Protein backbone atom coordinates (compact mmCIF):
# COMPACT_ATOMS: atom_id res chain seq x y z
CA UNK A 1 0.00 0.00 0.00
CA UNK A 2 2.83 2.41 0.84
CA UNK A 3 4.41 1.72 -2.56
CA UNK A 4 1.10 2.44 -4.30
CA UNK A 5 0.75 5.75 -2.47
CA UNK A 6 4.33 6.65 -3.37
CA UNK A 7 3.75 5.89 -7.05
CA UNK A 8 0.54 7.97 -7.06
CA UNK A 9 2.39 10.86 -5.40
CA UNK A 10 5.18 10.54 -7.94
CA UNK A 11 2.77 10.55 -10.88
CA UNK A 12 0.98 13.71 -9.72
CA UNK A 13 4.28 15.40 -8.88
CA UNK A 14 5.79 14.80 -12.33
CA UNK A 15 2.50 15.89 -13.93
CA UNK A 16 2.61 19.19 -12.02
CA UNK A 17 6.29 19.50 -12.98
CA UNK A 18 5.49 19.20 -16.70
CA UNK A 19 2.37 21.38 -16.57
CA UNK A 20 4.42 24.16 -14.95
CA UNK A 21 6.89 23.96 -17.84
CA UNK A 22 3.96 24.44 -20.20
CA UNK A 23 2.42 27.35 -18.32
CA UNK A 24 5.79 29.08 -18.01
CA UNK A 25 6.32 28.71 -21.76
CA UNK A 26 2.86 30.09 -22.51
CA UNK A 27 3.42 33.04 -20.19
CA UNK A 28 6.57 33.77 -22.19
CA UNK A 29 4.83 33.55 -25.56
CA UNK A 30 4.87 29.88 -26.59
CA UNK A 31 1.41 28.21 -26.78
CA UNK A 32 2.76 24.85 -28.04
CA UNK A 33 1.85 22.98 -24.86
CA UNK A 34 -1.72 24.29 -24.95
CA UNK A 35 -2.15 23.29 -28.59
CA UNK A 36 -0.86 19.82 -27.68
CA UNK A 37 -3.46 19.52 -24.90
CA UNK A 38 -0.78 19.31 -22.20
CA UNK A 39 -1.89 22.17 -19.94
CA UNK A 40 -3.99 19.81 -17.85
CA UNK A 41 -3.54 17.89 -14.61
CA UNK A 42 -5.11 14.82 -16.21
CA UNK A 43 -2.33 12.21 -15.74
CA UNK A 44 -3.38 10.31 -18.87
CA UNK A 45 -2.14 13.22 -20.99
CA UNK A 46 1.32 13.05 -19.45
CA UNK A 47 2.06 9.44 -18.50
CA UNK A 48 5.06 7.70 -19.99
CA UNK A 49 4.66 3.91 -19.84
CA UNK A 50 8.29 3.31 -18.92
CA UNK A 51 9.03 6.34 -16.75
CA UNK A 52 5.66 6.78 -15.02
CA UNK A 53 4.65 3.16 -14.44
CA UNK A 54 7.28 0.48 -15.05
CA UNK A 55 10.36 2.15 -13.53
CA UNK A 56 8.58 3.41 -10.36
CA UNK A 57 6.94 0.02 -9.81
CA UNK A 58 10.23 -1.88 -10.17
CA UNK A 59 12.10 0.57 -7.92
CA UNK A 60 9.38 0.24 -5.28
CA UNK A 61 10.24 -3.47 -5.01
CA UNK A 62 14.03 -3.07 -4.77
CA UNK A 63 15.89 -1.82 -1.66
CA UNK A 64 16.27 1.01 -0.70
CA UNK A 65 12.72 1.35 -2.18
CA UNK A 66 13.21 4.87 -3.57
CA UNK A 67 10.38 5.58 -6.00
CA UNK A 68 11.45 7.65 -8.98
CA UNK A 69 10.28 8.27 -12.54
CA UNK A 70 9.30 10.82 -15.16
CA UNK A 71 6.47 11.92 -17.47
CA UNK A 72 6.41 12.76 -21.17
CA UNK A 73 8.14 16.13 -21.65
CA UNK A 74 5.79 19.00 -22.45
CA UNK A 75 6.55 20.31 -25.96
CA UNK A 76 8.15 23.76 -26.00
CA UNK A 77 9.25 25.77 -29.03
CA UNK A 78 12.03 28.08 -27.77
CA UNK A 79 11.78 30.22 -30.92
CA UNK A 80 8.33 31.40 -29.80
CA UNK A 81 9.57 32.70 -26.47
CA UNK A 82 9.53 36.48 -26.16
CA UNK A 83 12.74 36.56 -24.16
CA UNK A 84 15.24 34.71 -26.31
CA UNK A 85 18.06 35.22 -23.80
CA UNK A 86 16.43 33.90 -20.64
CA UNK A 87 13.13 32.39 -21.78
CA UNK A 88 14.34 28.82 -22.06
CA UNK A 89 16.08 29.09 -18.68
CA UNK A 90 12.86 30.28 -17.01
CA UNK A 91 10.79 27.55 -18.64
CA UNK A 92 13.29 24.89 -17.53
CA UNK A 93 13.39 26.25 -13.97
CA UNK A 94 9.58 26.16 -13.65
CA UNK A 95 9.52 22.35 -13.38
CA UNK A 96 11.94 21.79 -10.48
CA UNK A 97 10.71 25.06 -8.98
CA UNK A 98 7.20 23.61 -8.70
CA UNK A 99 8.57 20.51 -6.97
CA UNK A 100 10.50 22.64 -4.49
CA UNK A 101 7.36 24.66 -3.68
CA UNK A 102 5.34 21.48 -3.09
CA UNK A 103 8.08 20.11 -0.82
CA UNK A 104 8.28 23.40 1.08
CA UNK A 105 4.50 23.66 1.55
CA UNK A 106 3.99 20.16 2.91
CA UNK A 107 7.27 20.24 4.80
CA UNK A 108 6.20 23.35 6.70
CA UNK A 109 2.84 21.72 7.47
CA UNK A 110 4.75 18.86 9.10
CA UNK A 111 7.04 21.25 10.99
CA UNK A 112 4.19 23.41 12.36
CA UNK A 113 2.15 20.32 13.20
CA UNK A 114 4.91 19.35 15.59
CA UNK A 115 3.92 22.42 17.62
CA UNK A 116 0.16 22.72 17.09
CA UNK A 117 -0.87 19.09 16.39
CA UNK A 118 -3.58 19.98 13.86
CA UNK A 119 -3.04 17.14 11.36
CA UNK A 120 -3.93 13.43 11.67
CA UNK A 121 -1.03 10.99 11.83
CA UNK A 122 -2.18 9.27 8.62
CA UNK A 123 -1.84 12.53 6.67
CA UNK A 124 1.63 13.18 8.08
CA UNK A 125 2.92 9.99 6.46
CA UNK A 126 1.54 11.08 3.06
CA UNK A 127 2.92 14.59 3.54
CA UNK A 128 6.39 13.21 4.34
CA UNK A 129 6.31 11.18 1.12
CA UNK A 130 5.24 14.29 -0.80
CA UNK A 131 8.18 16.23 0.60
CA UNK A 132 10.78 13.53 -0.06
CA UNK A 133 9.61 12.64 -3.59
CA UNK A 134 9.36 16.28 -4.67
CA UNK A 135 12.79 17.08 -3.26
CA UNK A 136 14.13 14.07 -5.14
CA UNK A 137 12.54 15.27 -8.41
CA UNK A 138 13.74 18.83 -7.94
CA UNK A 139 17.35 18.03 -7.08
CA UNK A 140 17.64 15.34 -9.73
CA UNK A 141 16.26 17.59 -12.46
CA UNK A 142 18.62 20.39 -11.49
CA UNK A 143 21.66 18.26 -12.35
CA UNK A 144 23.26 19.96 -15.41
CA UNK A 145 23.23 16.92 -17.70
CA UNK A 146 21.04 16.79 -20.83
CA UNK A 147 18.14 16.23 -21.12
CA UNK A 148 17.53 17.25 -17.49
CA UNK A 149 16.24 20.76 -16.75
CA UNK A 150 19.50 21.63 -15.05
CA UNK A 151 21.36 21.45 -18.37
CA UNK A 152 19.04 24.07 -19.92
CA UNK A 153 19.37 26.29 -16.86
CA UNK A 154 23.14 25.94 -16.72
CA UNK A 155 23.94 26.36 -20.41
CA UNK A 156 21.28 28.99 -20.91
CA UNK A 157 23.01 31.08 -18.27
CA UNK A 158 26.42 30.85 -19.96
CA UNK A 159 27.75 33.27 -22.61
CA UNK A 160 27.52 32.20 -26.26
CA UNK A 161 31.25 31.44 -26.42
CA UNK A 162 30.58 28.24 -24.44
CA UNK A 163 28.33 26.88 -27.19
CA UNK A 164 30.99 24.42 -28.37
CA UNK A 165 31.32 22.96 -24.87
CA UNK A 166 27.54 22.68 -24.68
CA UNK A 167 27.42 20.75 -27.96
CA UNK A 168 30.14 18.36 -26.78
CA UNK A 169 28.38 17.68 -23.49
CA UNK A 170 25.03 17.10 -25.22
CA UNK A 171 26.64 14.60 -27.62
CA UNK A 172 27.99 12.65 -24.65
CA UNK A 173 24.97 13.16 -22.41
CA UNK A 174 24.08 9.46 -22.16
CA UNK A 175 27.56 8.53 -20.93
CA UNK A 176 27.57 11.43 -18.48
CA UNK A 177 24.10 10.54 -17.26
CA UNK A 178 25.03 6.92 -16.57
CA UNK A 179 28.26 8.00 -14.86
CA UNK A 180 26.25 10.32 -12.64
CA UNK A 181 23.70 7.64 -11.70
CA UNK A 182 26.26 4.96 -10.87
CA UNK A 183 29.08 7.02 -9.32
CA UNK A 184 27.83 10.45 -8.22
CA UNK A 185 24.28 9.86 -6.98
CA UNK A 186 25.67 8.78 -3.60
CA UNK A 187 26.71 12.42 -3.07
CA UNK A 188 23.23 13.75 -3.95
CA UNK A 189 21.27 11.49 -1.63
CA UNK A 190 22.66 13.14 1.56
CA UNK A 191 21.65 16.55 0.16
CA UNK A 192 18.04 15.38 -0.22
CA UNK A 193 18.06 13.91 3.29
CA UNK A 194 19.50 17.14 4.73
CA UNK A 195 16.87 19.31 2.99
CA UNK A 196 14.10 16.97 4.10
CA UNK A 197 15.15 17.27 7.74
CA UNK A 198 15.70 21.02 7.44
CA UNK A 199 12.21 21.66 6.06
CA UNK A 200 10.19 19.16 8.10
CA UNK A 201 12.14 19.16 11.35
CA UNK A 202 11.96 15.35 11.43
Note the gap between the termini.
23 Å
Instruction: Tell me roughly what share of residues is in helical segments.
Output: 55-70%
Task: Kindly name the structural category.
Answer: mainly alpha
Q: Which regions have little confidence, pLDDT < 50, spanning 5+ residues?
A: none
Helix count from the secondary structure assignment: 8
Percent range for β-strand residues: under 5%
Counting DSSP E segments of at least 2 residues, the number of strands comes to 0
The largest pleated sheet is described as: none
The coarse overall form would be globular
Average pLDDT works out at 87
Order of helices and strands: HHHHHHHH
Question: How is this structure best summarized?
Answer:
This protein is an all-alpha fold.
Explain what this protein looks like in three dimensions:
The model has no long low-confidence stretch (mean pLDDT 87). Helix 1 crosses helix 5 and helix 4 (87-116) runs antiparallel to helix 5 (121-141). With 202 residues, the chain is mostly helical. It has helices at 2-27, 32-35, 49-59, 87-116, 121-141, 149-156, 163-171, 173-200. It has one domain (2-200). It contains 8 helices and no strands.
Amino acid sequence: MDSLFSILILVMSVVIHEVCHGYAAEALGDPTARYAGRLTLNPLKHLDLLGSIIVPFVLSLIPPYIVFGWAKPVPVNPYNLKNQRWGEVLVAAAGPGSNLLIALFFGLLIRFNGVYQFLPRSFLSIAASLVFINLLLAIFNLVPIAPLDGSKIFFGSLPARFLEAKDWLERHSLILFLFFIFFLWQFIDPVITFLFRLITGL
